[in-house]
Design goal:
Residues 1-154 form the Spermatogenesis-associated protein 20-like TRX domain. Pfam families: Thioredox_DsbH. InterPro entries: 6-hairpin_glycosidase_sf, Ssp411, Ssp411-like_TRX, Thioredoxin-like_sf. 49% of the residues lie in helices and 11% in strands. By secondary structure, the chain is of the alpha+beta class. It has a five-stranded mixed sheet. A four-stranded mixed sheet has the order 20-19-21-22, with helices on both faces. A three-stranded antiparallel sheet has the order 8-9-14. α11 packs parallel to α17, α19 (475-492) runs parallel beside α21 and α21 (545-560) packs antiparallel against α22. The longest helix is centred in the middle third of the chain and has 20 residues, at 378-397. It is globular and about 80 Å long.
């Protein structure tokens, strides 16, 4: 075993028996590199990554390859989910060098951590040749290596940075015209989603477009969002047997998934489908939301009510083996019902993807359309399909399961907690709120020390010198937990959650915010220093921590009537606004903040004995640009002098409140007029 054997990271433990003399990222490895003047080989991945497994089997388990790595390099293995700050640095380097990125990420660095070369997956022979060439390059041309490291490190420091904007622009609806013009170039009008293969769900993009379509009454954008939601739910990227979404589709039609299932995707997609249901009462959205929750509760929930990170793409060393079926297997499981099931999910004898005879389940027709094709009543079709699904689920459950990444990350738990709150808001199912509260209590008890967060829930690792391994925490942890606690307040009116959110946000401002740039750093001021201190600005599959924090501060500014929060959020938007039209899909959450800025935010206060029933009524109406607060008591400034036994709804906006009303219909009139 190498030095990864004492790690708690499932990804690092996967490499603990490699003949490579792996080190975890930390002082021991970094000191060794400087002391021996050796190049550092940083290899970054995560436990559910299929191509990470492939490179491990081909290269890192090979004695000859390992001998080369051990001879010429100090080899460091990094779990990108535990150390996204390290990943951010070297991913920036790879993207600057090649224009693309991904995992596994392999970067060769000077002994002081500055990169000189890198890439993603390498075949074994290419990898060995590359290592020999780089070792020789560093030995024979150290000045060239130094020169390249200087230029590349300067590029990393500038990458994903923005200038401080002093001017205070007047935003208007016209600002959306160039943004949407750029965005629509990426619309797939046939299959939904953005671009071609591979196709990622990008839930925040759809969430913004849904809100934009509603507030601007843009029917074309609304139709596109509905198409995307429908196609994703019908595609093979969705697990039609057990619920939950895979990370992405390898094709452009949502058919064949990359089978890993991530908590962060499913938390965000739960929010998306729940909010979409309030916007457009499609029962498909409700079904998808319910099945995501069932999947997460069944397969990604710890005994302590934390949420695990991911399920692997592979089982028994084979991608997707747990999920795929031959027609013969289904006939054995379902008997006479197999024919109907196979028609419904497009199962064929030959198979419908790359592996012969194997099938990924997907749909093309809605239930009414399929029932008409088959000449069956809809109720009978659904009854028979659901019975067959359960039988397939039971049979699948007996297979060897994909590996579980049992890390519990604060950031991703925040996304799932927010999803549960959004689901409770949309569907009023007490079980959703119960699970949300259990998770929030877990986070509050186990991952918060005062207002400081812990990124990972795990036993502390003892280092060889007797110290405990420090656990860094990053801005996305703070941003997503604050967002989730705000959402939890809005469905419970329990001020403790909002006060918790405020304290955590204040801690982030103190340790992560830079007044000179008007943005938050990704790492804290007291964290271990890397070769650059970066900000996370562009929204990806997960919204950037800066955009989430900006939106949080805008909400907290309204809840607590605190101008400092408004000023920070406004400055952050000013810095980003010049970039929105250039690459719209990479700034979706920022554009949602612009949407709130232009259309304003309604503050809906509901107080009195019957507040809960009116809160539920209000929530059944799609008002994407609102905060909601109230209860029978409270200390928030907007609630001052608003408590009495009679239940009242107050609609406020721009520091002005309309006359209170006692029913939802009159409250909606004040919003819609």
């Amino acid at each position: 075993m190498n030095r990864l054997a004492t790690s708690t990271s499932p990804y690092l433990l996967q490499h603990a028996n490699n003949p490579v003399n792996w080190y975890p990222w930390g002082p021991e490895a970094l000191h060794k590199a400087k002391e021996e003047n050796k190049l550092i080989l940083v290899s970054i991945g995560y436990s559910a990554c299929h191509w990470c497994h492939v490179m491990e089997h081909e290269s890192f388990e090979d004695e000859a390859v390992a001998a080369v790595m051990n001879e010429y390099f100090v080899c460091i293995k990094v779990d990108r989910e535990e150390r996204p700050d390290v990943d951010q640095i070297y991913m920036s380097a790879i993207q600057l060098m090649s224009g693309r990125g991904g995992w596994p990420l392999n970067c060769i660095c000077l002994p002081d951590q500055r990169p000189i070369y890198g890439g993603t997956y390498f075949r074994k022979n290419d990898w060995t040749s590359l290592l020999f060439n780089l070792a020789d390059f560093y030995k024979t041309k150290p000045e060239e290596a130094e020169d390249y490291a200087v230029r590349l490190t300067d590029g990393i420091k500038q990458y994903e940075s923005v200038a401080f904007v002093h001017e205070k622009p007047e935003y208007s609806k016209a600002d959306f015209e160039p943004i949407l013009k750029t965005w629509k170039r990426y619309f797939d009008e046939e299959e939904g989603g953005f671009g071609g293969a591979p196709k990622f769900p990008m839930p925040n993009n759809s969430l913004f477009l849904m809100r934009y379509a509603h507030l601007t009454q843009d029917d074309d954008v609304a139709d596109f969002v509905k198409l995307t939601l429908h196609k994703m739910a019908f595609g093979g990227i969705y697990d039609h047997i057990g619920g939950g979404f895979a990370r992405y589709a390898v094709d452009g039609v949502w058919h064949v998934p990359h089978f890993e299932k991530m908590l962060y995707d499913n938390g965000q997609l739960l929010s998306l489908y729940a909010e979409a249901y309030i916007w457009n009462l499609d029962p498909l959205y409700k079904t998808i939301a319910a099945e995501i929750i069932s999947f997460v509760k069944r397969e990604l929930t710890s005994p302590e009510n934390g949420f695990y990170s991911a399920l692997d793409a592979d089982s028994e060393g084979k991608e997707g083996k747990f999920y795929i079926f031959t027609k013969a297997e289904l006939e054995e499981i379902l008997g006479d019902e197999a024919q109907l099931f196979c028609i419904y999910y497009y199962v064929t004898d030959a198979g419908n993807w790359e592996e012969e005879h194997s099938n990924v389940f997907f749909r093309r027709e809605g239930d009414e359309e399929m029932a008409a094709i088959l000449g069956l009543p809809v109720d009978e079709l659904l009854s028979r399909i659901n019975t067959s699904r359960q039988k397939v689920f039971d049979a699948r459950s007996k297979r060897i399961r994909p590996g579980l990444d049992n890390k519990i990350l604060a950031s991703w738990n925040g996304l799932m907690l927010k999803g549960l709150c959004d689901a409770y808001r949309a569907f009023d199912d007490p079980a959703y709120l119960e699970l949300a509260l259990k998770n929030a209590d877990f986070l509050n008890s186990n991952m918060l020390s005062g207002d400081k967060l812990l990124r990972i829930f795990k036993e502390p690792v003892l280092l060889p010198n007797g110290d405990h391994e420090p656990i860094a925490t990053f801005l996305d942890d703070y941003a997503n937990i604050v967002d989730a606690f705000i959402a939890l307040y809005e469905v419970t009116f329990d001020e403790d959650w909002l006060i918790r959110a405020k304290g955590i946000a204040d801690y982030a401002i103190l340790h992560y915010y830079d007044k000179h740039t008007g943005m938050f750093y990704y790492t804290a001021d007291d964290d271990q220093h890397l070769i650059a201190r970066k900000s996370e600005i562009m929204d990806g599959v997960i919204p950037a921590s800066n955009s989430v924090m900006a939106r949080n501060l805008k909400k907290l500014g309204l809840f607590f009537d605190q101008e400092e929060y408004h000023e920070i959020a406004a400055q952050m938007l000013r810095n980003i606004a010049p970039h929105l039209a250039k690459y719209s899909t990479a700034y979706s959450n920022w554009t949602a903040l612009l949407l709130d800025e232009i259309f304003g935010t309604y503050e809906v206060a509901i107080t009195g004995d019957n507040y809960e029933s009116l809160r539920k009524e209000v929530e059944q109406n799609y008002i994407p640009n609102k905060i909601i607060l109230g209860g029978k008591k409270g200390t928030l400034p907007l609630l001052t002098d608003k408590f009495e036994s009679n239940t009242r709804i107050y609609i406020c906006k721009d520091k002005t409140c309309s006359l209170p009303v006692d029913n939802t219909a009159d409250a909606l009139k004040q919003i819609n007029n």
